[in-house]
Amino acid sequence: MIRSTDIQPDTYKSGQFLRRWSISEASGQAVCVEDAYAIADTEQATLDAQSESNSKIKGALADVESLEKARQVPEPEGDIPKTVTETDLEGNETERPYQPWARYDAAQVTIAGATDLTNNFETVRKGKPSETLPVMVEVERPILDEEGNDTGVVEVVEEVDAEAEPVANPAYATWQSAWASVSPLND
Hints:
By secondary structure, this protein is α+β, with helices and mostly antiparallel strands. Helices cover 35% and strands 24% of the residues. The protein has helices at residues 44-71, 99-112, 116-125, 170-182; strands at residues 11-12, 17-18, 22-23, 30-31, 37-38, 83-87, 93-97, 132-133, 136-144, 150-160, 167-168. A three-stranded antiparallel sheet has the order 1-2-5. Strands 3-4 form a two-stranded antiparallel ribbon. The protein has a two-stranded antiparallel sheet with strand order 6-7. The longest helix is centred in the first third of the chain and has 28 residues, at 44-71. The chain is flat. The mean pLDDT is 93.
């Protein structure tokens, strides 16, 4: 997976080519699927526009990486104080934040401050879900012994109802809305 720090520098082969970064619709990842611009053969306005686009993608990617990292910070469990009081050799007391709480509080600030674009990018990076879902049905199946005889015990299992039409996947509608917000980064 490409990280925001992997995007720069934009040029390679001693500055001969400019990468063309975009966000993949299928995976939500930063990719270079279009041929790089040969700098010597490309108008400066085109190079400038691509550099600006690459910069926007890098910035959005850095923001979503921070959000994803913040969501992984667990809330401290148990009866843990938010602050710790330390006493030095002269008897002076200093109160400082307890590190697990400080990390958690900082993560919550990041989560609360995330823009719509960042939240939508996070949704897109989870991958494009299917448009429909199969209809599931519960079926009773007899449990058989080693010889294949019915034991009289029945288990209930869930399987796809082959006769039913698939239903709309609500996650797809959410993803579609998020993609509409993120896809302009590719322009």
